[in-house]
Amino acid sequence: METEQLNEVEEQRDRNFEWWHHSHPTFAGITGFFAGMLYVTAVPGAFVGILRLLFSYETAEKLFPFVLIALVLPIVMLIKRKTRRFAQFMFVGMVVTAMVVLGVASLVLYFMVDA
Question: Whole-prediction pTM value?
Answer without folding.
Answer: 0.70
